[in-house]
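Records of this kind hold a single protein each, on a pair of labelled lines. With that in mind, the following record should read easily:
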Amino acid sequence: MSIQSACAHHLLQAVFDAVSGEDVGHVRRITHALYPRFLIVYDEDRRDWTRVNVETAVRRKPYVAVTYCYDDVINFGSTEALIERVRNATLDQGFDAYAYWLDLECLFEDPIQKAQDLYRMSDVYRLASFTLIILTNESAWGGRVWTLPEALLSRELRYKAGDNTVTPISLIQIASLAYSHHDEESHIINSYGLGKDPLERLERNLQLKEAIWRRESFQGRYRAEKVYALMGFFEHRILPNAGETELQALARLFMANDNDRIADRMISMFPRDRRGINQWYTKDDEYGAKLWDIEPAIQVIGVTSNGSLVLDGRRAAAIRWKNFPSVAFATRRTVHLAHTMPYVVLFFFVLGGSILLYDFELAYDQNSPYQPSLCGEGMLIISSVLLIFAPILTTYAHSGRVVLARPWLIGVKGVISVQEASNYLYGYQIGDSRRTFYTPSGSPLARPTESDSKFREGHVSQYDAALAAPPFDPIEGHMFTLVDTVSSTIYYFRAHRPPTVCLFTGSEGGQGRFVLASEECSSSELRRETVLRMPSYIFGHVHTCDWVALCGNP
């Protein structure tokens, strides 16, 4: 199969790391080892609190990390009142230095310096002697996006409510008090708080992402604030950029931590919520697969300014929509006598005619009466009769089950049956041999046959369901049929635009994952329309292609 080029080399310039100006090497070298840029330190001699920004002093100084809720600033009437409570609590615990998360005292307003502070925020809590939670409303604090890294990454938690004394509190206790989604996040909390319920890294990171996304983000300067809160749990972090979206930041974070190949796997997933079909991030797969079930066959190497992922190492094929082509194929009967008989008969017809012609010329030369040869006459009569039935014999020869066909992917708008597809591709047949089959599990409309079936194939009920479905759905789009000649299978699917490219992106459960995509000519990118599960051996019939950008903003 051939593939039309869908993108050009200018995609390299669109990789978002270059756009953001991030020093990737620096980010990868420094992982969990950064101290706060500033500390607020109590000076015994002057009996006053001062900001210390000398790196050597900050590194040697034990400190308290402080977390609070901005609603408390409003409740207490002023920022100064909250700061006074923090300072008294710090001294009461025997410490003389603290660091804030929010930009009350310890964060710069300068965009570059603030981005660096966000980058190191997870280390501020990791390296603190303990984290002081100071607030009046637990639920308001627990609904903030940063409360997960603040609590989960801290060595120890201490809690001060109102005018009460500071008391130690476990992660389990604070989670039950302040986290409104405690039940859904119990695996994460137990894993960090008790060392129980260990989670695989890939599963843990995905659960952390979903937990952070449940929380409220004020965003402010950074639209991707939730991603920057999440990155503290990853080995490698990214430098925040105020101009990027959440999906762009997520793509950069996943690429920086490519061991789990999260973005590579998500490309192959089919979102249950079809409104997110063109977004590469997918939470739930329509086919019921988990992210770790998918073995990716492509690599994400960048993200464009439009939010598309740049893919390398992909294989793709074009989908034909013009008409049904003339397909070269072979059946089990192709080598049988029924196929060769017309040619044998034609040979004997010519041979019989040649014998009779020879007898006529011989009689003419000898000036004797013409006596036709019985052999020649018999050959000519019998072969003439058989030639009349040659079309029937040829049709019968091509009526067996197709065992080999030229590779084609053919798209049809609407619904056709397997019999109609067979007739268009291979012509009419004699007998009831099935030459094209319904998919047993390749699309959301697929239905397998009963377990006692001779072949693994789809049930005809999926054709009835597709035929009865509305031609157009506002969310899922139009109804289409895809015919694959390699596996002799047809698939029913919905899409808003006819897909012109089929990408092999991974495998799962003994089947290949193929993304059907349409072209965005204005941006030289592809738009994901649907995901089908097709036999993995089709991989050998598609060609390697250049980079392509997929799943950006439409």
